[in-house]
Structure formats: C-alpha cells, structure tokens
Design brief:
Layout: H1 6-16, E1 18-25, E2 30-37, E3 61-62, E4 65-66, H2 76-84, H3 91-98, H4 103-109, H5 117-133, H6 135-149, E5 160-163, H7 165-170, E6 172-173, H8 174-180, H9 187-195, E7 199-201, E8 204-205, E9 212-213, E10 224-228, E11 232-238
Parallel strand pairs: 5-11
Antiparallel strand pairs: 1-2, 3-4, 6-9, 7-8, 7-10, 10-11
C-alpha cells in the first residue's frame, strides 16, 4: 500500500465507527444530527496492484488523458478505440480482466499472431464497450471504425466538434484546429504531428502547420474530417 493511501483508509474506518442518527428538535423544528459510536464494527480496506501495459505505461491513460467510463467524458467510440489499440502482448491479459468471455475462447484468441491478432483486439473492444455502454454502442463503434479505416469514409459515430461559422470564415491555423478537435493536447504536439506527416484533413496530408482551415475545406458530407494517424479521427462542423 502506498504511503498516501494509508491515512485515507484510517479516515474511512474512523468515519464508519459512527452512525448518524437524525431527530427533529420539537422546540425549533430543526433537524438535529447526533452520532452513535460502534467500536466493534468491522471494516476492511482493499488494494489491488496498479495495472500497467506491456510497455510499462499506466493503464487507462491516453494522449488526451484518462479514459472515463461516462459517455459525457469519453464517447463510446473513443472508449472502443482505446481497447482496439491495445498492445499485442496485453490482449490475453486484458481479455481476462475486462471481459466475461469463456477462458477457452480467450486462450484461442491470445494465440492469434500477425494480422490475425486484430480480430482479438476487436473482440476485446466490443466486449469491454458492451459492458460499459451497451451492445448497440459496441456495434455502432465497430461499424464506424470499419467505415473510417477500411472504406476511407466518415462513420456515423466519429467525435464531432462544433466551431462557429464566423471563426471558420476567418480561418484557423491547422495546428490549432487539431487541438480544438482533441487530436493533440498542445500546440507543440500538434506541430510535431504535422511535421511527422501524421495529420490529415479530409484524408489529405497536412503539409503546413500554419495553413488556414476555413469554410472552403468543408467536404461533401458537410464537415471537415481531421485525422491523427490511421486510428484517431474527428469531424469539425460549422455552426
């Protein structure tokens, strides 16, 4: 147990020894709370090992920060992508930890090699997303990924970022738009992405980090598609 955790366990145990009893004071009709002490109550603190990936990174971290379970913090599609991007060496372990598949099926999947390991990663992503967001969200996320990656199109559930039409009329530098779309966590990171050839707009490589992206970049689907590498995408919509 880490040193910073132990005091929290002690506080929790001390609080649990006291049971609040509520009563209305007749003379004031106000709620009065008193506490009853239970020194013999049992309470146990449980810790688990920190989960790390095969590369040593803390589980649950991405370039944009922590992976949240709630949809308002991380979309089901981004949650699905987090599991889809699992390192090859972690697939079997994560299938055991984060899905309810039979052990026999997990043992079959973790033996897959080469390009076939992607099948196991998709199953991991589907099963983990199904538990957190439901079966339909898992299906929608997989279909969006298929349309985006295999067909080069725009899936129905890619993250959408709304930007004021007036702002797009002026134009936004490419590196800043990548930040606004959540594809880079800083200006420096966005510029590195562009310089490394990993940033695309409407499936075309962005060559100049300062190029102004405006209304003329809106495609036939009515949005601007931004990409970071092959697996991270976002749509910009003028409002």
């Amino acid at each position: 147990m880490a040193r910073d955790q132990y005091p929290e366990f002690c506080k929790g145990k001390n609080i649990s020894l006291w049971t609040p009893l509520e009563a209305i004071k007749p003379e004031t009709k106000k709620l009065k709370v008193r506490y009853e002490y239970h020194p013999d109550s049992d309470l146990y603190g449980l810790t688990t090992p920190l989960i790390t990936t095969a590369s040593g990174a803390k589980m649950g971290k991405t370039a944009q920060g922590a992976v949240w379970l709630t949809e308002d913090m991380v979309s089901p599609y981004d949650y699905w992508q987090f599991w889809r991007n699992t390192e090859d060496k972690d697939v079997g372990r994560f299938l055991r930890l984060f899905t309810e598949l039979d052990i026999a099926e997990i043992e079959r999947l973790e033996k897959l090699e080469g390009a076939e390991i992607n099948q196991a990663k998709i199953i991991l992503a589907n099963e983990a997303t199904k538990i957190c967001h439901g079966e339909q969200a898992a299906k929608d996320s997989e279909e969006t990924a298929r349309k985006t990656f295999e067909q080069g199109g725009i899936g129905d559930f890619l993250p959408v970022v709304e930007i004021a039409k007036a702002e797009l009329e002026i134009g936004i530098p490419a590196f800043k738009m990548l930040m606004q779309a959540g594809l880079a966590d800083s200006g420096k990171a966005a510029k590195r992405l562009i310089q490394g050839g990993g940033a695309k707009i409407n499936d075309n490589k962005i060559e100049d980090e300062m190029i102004n992206i405006g209304l003329d970049f809106i495609n036939s689907d009515g949005v601007i598609k931004l990409s970071s590498g092959k697996k991270k995408h976002a749509l910009v919509k003028a409002v």
